[in-house]
């Protein structure tokens, strides 16, 4: 009986040692923030958001410097990164512009909208011990005629000594809010573009 108990304890210890680490999942949702009442108007779709090919994967990719990228097997995005970015940016543009009818692309049951933001993320770096960096180009189009109403570029970084992926993602959220504020400016300056009627 004593041998069986010892054998069972040894097997339990061996299995515990073989258990893989728990995966952690990250999102980019913006916290609810008090702001002026937003106005509904023409539908503004935000997306698609294009990404560098190296980032089109469920795992977080860390920039280790010198061109070395490190895949974080157990640190993952909670959804495809391009969708997470479109959702975060649409929330930020709506909040910064006061336009309530800003939606992340694609939206089931919704056609192309009236206005559309297209975003090309040129670089998105999570750099342990150094912070985060984001470079993107965007343009705002009228869907009906394809006319480009506004365009811009964004290139900023946030220095941080953090090494943990969660802390680096928090720095990325701040950069995305800066990009959203830049994108919202034309809507604020030209209410005639999005007001219905």
UniProtKB/TrEMBL annotation:
Ranges of residues in domain ABC-type transport auxiliary lipoprotein component: 26-184
Keywords: Signal
Signal sequence extent: 1-19
Transmembrane segments: none
Pfam family membership, one: ABC_trans_aux
Keyword Signal: yes
Keyword Signal assigned: yes
Protein name (record): ABC-type transport auxiliary lipoprotein component domain-containing protein
Organism: Chromobacterium phragmitis
């Amino acid at each position: 009986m004593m041998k069986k108990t010892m054998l069972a304890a040894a097997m339990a210890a061996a299995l515990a040692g073989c258990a893989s680490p728990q995966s952690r999942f990250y999102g980019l949702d913006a916290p609810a923030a008090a702001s002026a009442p937003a106005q509904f108007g023409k539908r503004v779709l935000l997306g698609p958001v294009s990404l560098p090919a190296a980032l089109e994967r469920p795992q977080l990719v860390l920039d280790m410097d010198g061109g070395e990228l490190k895949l974080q097997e157990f640190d993952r995005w909670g959804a495809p990164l391009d969708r997470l970015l479109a959702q975060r940016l649409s929330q930020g543009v709506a909040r910064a512009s006061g336009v309530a009818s800003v939606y992340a692309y694609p939206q089931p049951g919704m056609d192309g909208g009236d206005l559309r933001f297209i975003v090309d993320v040129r670089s998105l770096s999570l750099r342990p011990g150094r912070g985060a960096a984001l470079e993107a180009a965007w343009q705002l189009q009228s869907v009906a005629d394809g006319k480009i109403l506004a365009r811009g570029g964004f290139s900023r970084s946030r220095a941080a000594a953090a090494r943990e992926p969660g802390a680096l993602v928090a720095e990325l959220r701040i950069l995305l809010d800066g990009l959203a504020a830049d994108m919202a400016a034309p809507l604020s300056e030209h209410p005639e573009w999005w007001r219905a009627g």
